């Protein structure tokens, strides 16, 4: 869904999430959703304030034991959308990103692509490591059995660590 600056008003208007093909269903293994809501309004200086939230549930696999895990993804966002970038228009090649610039979104044209914002926020909300449980023991390095299900009788590999010398000092 795309919002034109000309369609926005001074007061906040709510826009429900419409899946018009923006959501990567196959890529994220969607189970439930997406659902969300966006509120947008024009500010005084030709900028648009966009506040929204998006939620969905996807299937992923545990990074340790490879079992299937349901992940609830949720993201809230606030952007100040403006056309162009004044620093570059004035001939500056580099500019420092200040804290107040973190939520600014510079657009080439007066159109806000909500699908792009939703997609970006969902990808950013995926954890870098997916675990089925914080205490997941993973797979055996020798036979590949799931250590969460059964104990393994394989001989554990004793890897020589550079800190093995410290263990000898501790045993004294």
Brief account:
The chain has one domain. Helix content is 16%, strand content 33%.
Structure, explained:
By secondary structure, the protein is α+β, with helices and mostly antiparallel strands. The protein has four helices and seven strands; from the N terminus they run E-E-H-E-E-E-H-E-E-H-H. A hairpin with a 5-residue loop joins strand 3 and strand 4 (48-61). The protein is elongated, with a radius of gyration of 24 Å. It starts with a strand and ends with a helix. The model has no long low-confidence stretch (mean pLDDT 84).
Q: What's the number of extended β-strand segments?
A: 7
Distance between the termini: 68 Å
Number of domains: 1
Give the SSE string: EEHEEEHEEHH
Proportion of strand residues = 25-35%
Largest sheet geometry: 5 strands, mixed
Q: Helix/strand/pairing class, anyone?
A: alpha+beta
User: What general outline do the C-alpha atoms trace?
Assistant: elongated
Mean pLDDT, all residues: 84
Gyration radius, in Å = 24 Å
The helix tally amounts to: 4
How do the strands of the widest beta sheet line up side by side? 2-3-4-5-6
Q: Determine the fraction of residues in helical runs and give it as a percent range.
A: 10-25%
Spans of at least 5 consecutive residues with low confidence? none
